[in-house]
Write the structure tokens for this entry.
Amino acid sequence: MDSGILYVSDLDGTLLNTRDRISPYSLNVINTLIEKGMKFTYATARSLVSASRVAEGLTLHIPVIVYNGAFIMEADTGKILYSAKMAEKESRFLEEYFNRAGLFPLVYTFREGQEKVRWYPSRENYGIKRYLSMRKDDRRMEPVADNESLYQGEMFYFTCIGEKEELEGAYGELKKDGRFRVTLQQELYRPEYWLEVMPARASKAAAIGELKKIWKCGKVISFGDAVNDIPMFEISDEAYAVENAVEELKSYASDVILSNEEDGVAKWLQQRYQS
């Protein structure tokens, strides 16, 4: 019986195909297994708003993990069940650091109870312009005038988008600071890089640990493709990298399965899950 197993999949590059969608085949397989009792959810670096769009049609009964583990949220209501926001001192340190480094991140924050993404339009590069172009109707977007501070509200996530060379220095310095979890990776299917900074306690692994308690699961099986999935793989009882995953993640995997374009996660579940 698999009733005590929590199945967790990354989205981009794992469950989503190269068109940033879950294929009709994968939707049908996973939804059918969920109805049979499979405890399945996703863990993503995306926000709930963004994830809900690309995961449309997935009928989840388990809360989802977003922002790389900063939050566990109910997918249908947006209710926050678990959060790992920045401490005030951590936020102010990063504000001073980014100002010194001449970096202008996207700042994810809660202002007056509303989730916002703040940025300077005057500092938009190609990568940021592309990010914004895909979120034209997103109510979280809050452009900031040059004479106003980016860093307001209850901040929990910072993203710098740019060339690898301009972000490597900040990555090298910030990753040494035990207060933060820092990743630098190339955007999927794109040339630009993303430097992401969040509280050290915010990770897919920590959030999965919370979900295990809530849903009384004794075992975790996970699926992923990128370096930000390493903490999730490390705490999983079984972990499967899709064929298109980065080599570094594959070294942490129990095995390598078919690629995201070949419905690797759904086909593995179809073959291995038994209610």
